[in-house]
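To illustrate this point, what follows is a protein record of this kind.

___
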Amino acid sequence: MSELKEFAPYRTWKSSAAPAKNGDPEFTETPLSPVFSTPQEQIEQALSQIADALASEVLEAVLSLSPARFEKLVVDLLIAMGYGGGDLERGLQTNLSGDGGIDGIINEDELGLDAVYVQAKRYAPDNKVGRPALNAFVGSLTGEGATKGVFVTTSDFSREARDYVARVQQRIVLINGDRLARLMIKHEVGVRARRTYVLRSVDEDYFSDI
């Protein structure tokens, strides 16, 4: 990762067409008022670009996982987000065969009286999840008497799938590939800090009159 060595203000220019003697317009550039960005603004812009690039790298790494490992990743992420009280023992990964369309279960209380059911699909980016897959997931939730579900995919959801979920009785959250990667970054699942920069400012309280 290249380091930011210098923060410099930049100036914008505009092109104007002025009539020439031969009738063809002549283009000249005239400076506008200088547009300055502070070092903090440049850092924030750089961090945004780094986050976008990292999200793509994270999603690429997720796509390399096996289906079973991907399902475990999703359960780990939800636990890291605070579901199940952040207790790993409350997150269960179901068997690969005969799971009834449920890939994971997270008990939100110690007795398991309230649970979130998880479906995870590791699809190629151009293979969107359609309504039939969501319909099957809703059927699985109904069969379990469940009211909460999270459907996670590495691709995206079709408009029909999103519209369908908005009308069902169960509360279902859809997480596509981009959101999955950014949640993993935010909650530090599959990523780690390489370097930390500290941005300091004047402590007004220290300089205030006692």
Q: What stands out?
A: Residues 159 and 198 are 43 Å apart (CA to CA). The first strand starts at residue 13 and ends at 19. Residues 1-14, 95-99 have pLDDT under 50 and may be disordered.
